[in-house]
# Entry
Amino acid sequence: MGYLTKVQVVERANGQRQFYLICPVPLAQALEMEKGESIEWVVENKGILRITRSEARRASRSSDAQAAKKWFIDGFHEEKDEMNGRIVFLAPDMKTELGDIELQNLGFKKFSTDDYEANSEKIARFHVELYCEGMKFNINYADPGK
# Structure
């Protein structure tokens, strides 16, 4: 589902203009955006504007890096150390769960980071490859007649 917003322009007394794009609340909530969070705008062409969250979920990034360290460096990569997770499909209200895919026995296959540059505004990124030994697709069925 997409969200339409309108570009707002503020004309300053000195003749400069500032353009504002508003992120709709349901989208911001679904992405768990926080006040003061930085984003990078990249124009792919005149019809596509890509937005990348530069500091998105910094805490989870840190915990992901720690989990990878435990797995690869500290040697916690046995069957008992495998993880589980789920991918959730949401209704347009971004709250109601339509279904999910349960991911079973996940483990790290590869973890890497991009090169960092001192005093650079380049976004810090990492890449993760996981293996998954099992998946279960669940649909939350609601009888429309009720």
